[in-house]
Specification:
Keywords: Isomerase, Pyruvate. The protein is an alpha/beta fold and about 260 residues long. It is about 35% helix and about 15% strand. The chain has a single domain, classed as Divalent-metal-dependent TIM barrel enzymes (TIM Barrel). The chain starts with a strand and ends in a 19-residue tail after the last strand. Bound molecules: the ligand O=C(O)C(=O)[C@H](O)CO and magnesium ion (MG). The ligand O=C(O)C(=O)[C@H](O)CO binds next to loops.
Length: about 260
């Protein structure tokens, strides 16, 4: 049975971020993920996890200058020092929060730029991270983002990310399989799951097309959850969706998994 993690960046937004840990625990979650921890001291977040008996299972490297259109810097040629700084900071937080997975954001490739150079820059920076994280047993996750969410992101297809994982060639680097993006770009989710089996180490879910609770839209998540059980997937499933209304009003789908 899948282990579900509440995504505190998108769920429980009825309350301030630091109150979402308690809200998620009260709703029955034992695991949490969120985009970025860096606005808060490590000990504040650690206390929130401990007080609510929660395990952190994922967060991202920093986004860069979002106002300027950045969404990760690790693929941007010339920004290697920023990438390594972000990776080092992410390692500090992962160790402090006992978090087993870190998603390294690649970045946007502006039209007309040299895609191959961005790709090689990302490969080199992820290898830097993989070698630093390896001794601590922390996994690195790479994610494809659909163009309607993040135009010109380094990878849009799960197959592009799978190629990166193979080229990077490190034992602790895996695909972050977000079924919302996978359905929007690749489809064929059952066979895709078979293709990625052994190469993905985190899953995220949301309905398509609305990115709401996994109990509506064109993906049959009951089937997906059974598929994950069938292949023996032992990672977490991040609930990275925008609730239709009040978060707790939309948790009927979660009841059988508490
Ligand atoms: O956007 C997503 O699906 C993610 O999981 C990243 O964390 C942020 O782009
Ligand atoms: Mg995602």
């Amino acid at each position: 049975m899948p282990k579900f993690a509440a995504n505190l960046s998108m769920m429980f937004t009825e309350v301030p971020f630091l109150a979402r840990f308690e809200a998620a625990a009260k709703a029955g979650f034992k695991y949490v993920e969120y985009l970025f921890p860096y606005d808060y001291p490590k000990d504040v977040l650690k206390t929130k996890l401990q007080d609510n008996d929660l395990q952190q299972v994922l967060f991202n490297t920093a986004a860069g200058d979002v106002q300027a259109g950045e969404w990760g810097v690790s693929a941007i040629p010339g920004r290697e020092a920023d990438s390594h700084r972000d990776i080092d900071l992410a390692l500090e937080y992962a160790l402090a929060l006992n978090c087993p997975n870190v998603h390294i954001m690649s970045g946007v490739v502006p039209p007309g730029e040299n895609y191959a150079k961005y790709k090689q820059t990302f490969i080199d920076n992820v290898r830097y991270a993989a070698d630093k994280f390896q001794p601590h047993g922390i996994k690195i996750l790479l994610e494809a983002l659909s163009p309607q969410v993040k135009p010109n992101y380094l990878t849009a297809s799960q197959f592009q990310t799978l190629e990166l994982v193979d080229l990077i060639d490190r034992d602790n680097v895996f695909v972050q399989l977000d079924y919302f993006h996978a359905q929007n770009v690749d489809g064929n989710l059952t066979r895709l799951t078979d293709t990625l089996n052994g190469k993905f180490a985190h899953v995220q879910i949301a309905s398509v097309p609305e990115r709401h609770e996994p109990d509506e839209g064109e993906i049959n998540y009951r089937h997906i959850f059974d598929k994950l059980d069938e292949i023996g997937y032992e990672g977490w499933v991040g609930c990275e969706y925008n609730p239709r209304g009040k978060t707790t009003d939309g948790l009927g789908w979660f009841k059988p998994y508490k």
